[in-house]
Amino acid sequence: MKKIEVILKVTQNCNLRCAYCYNSGTGYAAQTLSIEKFEKLLSVLLTEYNLIHIIWHGGEPLMAGKEFFRKAMDAENRIRVQSSVIIENSIQTNGTLIDGEWIRFFKQNKFRIGISFDGIENDKYRSQTQKVLEAMKKLRAAGLDFSCIAVVADDDYDLKANYRYFAGQGINFDFNQVFGEGAAKDMAALKTSEFAKAYNQLFDEWLYDTDGVNVRSFSFYVGLAVGGRFRICTCSSCHMKYLGVTPDGTLYNCGRAGVEAYPFGNIDDFETARQIYTSDGAIALIKGSIERRNKCKKSCEYFDLCGGGCADIAIGEGDLSAMPENYCLFFKTVYSHISQTVRGLFEKNVPLDTLNPAIRTVLAKSLTRMSGPTSNDVSDTYV
């Protein structure tokens, strides 16, 4: 089964103006991807992939409207009938527009739901907290699972207090370090060493929280520490595994702003997925990424774990082909702490029932090797 993750920015329009919005440079234009371009995208991707995971993104994707999404699902169904491709749908939304009709739509079309929500800091950075909480309540009442992404935007963000907030409501979530792009460029930079220290301190609390919730990045690091191959986009090969799409049909490696310096072209320019990934922009991006990877491989003992990191992060720290110092510092600090802690669990034979329930899932996936390799085998063939 060959899978691709499509980060589809169906519109740049948004009803919020988050303080750290990396998308602010778009001007929040109201243009929506046409159904014709969406169908073309699917038809091109199925030349290479038999599982297409659409992550509806933005802006705020629900601003595209219910009629658009109904037509998009009709298009997916037509493609399914014509081929053997599997199409899955997720949505990353701010949650403020979710109502009963949207919930019925999500349920009928088996959408996975992610909500951007900053916990007890939400009104400081995002606003309309009560609307989001009401949406979460409605989703639960309808039996729909969801998870949250909370952005750590500055040094004042209290990781422990926010973890307890999410855990108290039984919400699985993850912390995302703020992207230094868009509106965030005007904010004080997060101190990496302090963030890593607070992150490790929270991990130590989370590990023994038997009533706790899953923090996805904690599970990722634990998976690495026990020899698993857990994929997270900043520490794995993304070439030919991810694709970003903007409302006008322009293609990029993902949905983050840094890679916009390497456009692949417009979906109308291609007939096969291979053509997308052999475009001039794709080749330039992967060449710079491999240059960085080669430097990392020669000089860093952590290379096999992080794979040289993320192209967008490297660009954000100065240069595609250079090792990103802040990212490297965070990864090394966190992984060394978590791996040492996990080794201690095994050495002391700590009972599983004294640990966070998420640990059991991590160990099960590691033992059965359910996740894919992190090596950049596909990308290396292009240089």
Describe the 3D structure.
This protein is 43% helix and 13% strand. With 383 residues, the protein is of the alpha/beta class. It has a 9-stranded mixed beta sheet with strand order 6-5-4-3-2-1-7-8-9. The protein is globular and about 60 Å long.
Short description:
With 383 residues, the chain is α/β, with parallel strands linked by helices.
Topology:
Blueprint: E1 3-9, H1 35-45, E2 51-57, H2 66-82, E3 86-93, H3 100-108, E4 112-116, H4 122-125, H5 129-141, E5 146-152, H6 159-168, E6 173-177, H7 192-207, H8 216-225, E7 242-245, E8 250-252, E9 265-266, H9 273-277, H10 280-299, H11 303-306, H12 311-316, H13 325-347, H14 358-368, H15 377-380
Parallel strand pairs: 1-2, 1-7, 2-3, 3-4, 4-5, 5-6
Antiparallel strand pairs: 7-8, 8-9
Helix pairs in contact: 1-2, 7-13, 8-13, 8-14
Question: Main traits of this protein?
Answer:
383 residues; disordered C terminus; alpha/beta
Task: Please give the alpha-carbon distance between the first and last residues.
Answer: 25 Å
Radius of gyration: 20 Å
Subunit arrangement of the protein: single chain
Instruction: Give the strand order, joined by hyphens, for the main sheet.
Output: 6-5-4-3-2-1-7-8-9
Which term fits the overall shape? globular
Structural class based on helices, strands and sheet pairing: alpha/beta
Unreliable residue stretches? 369-383
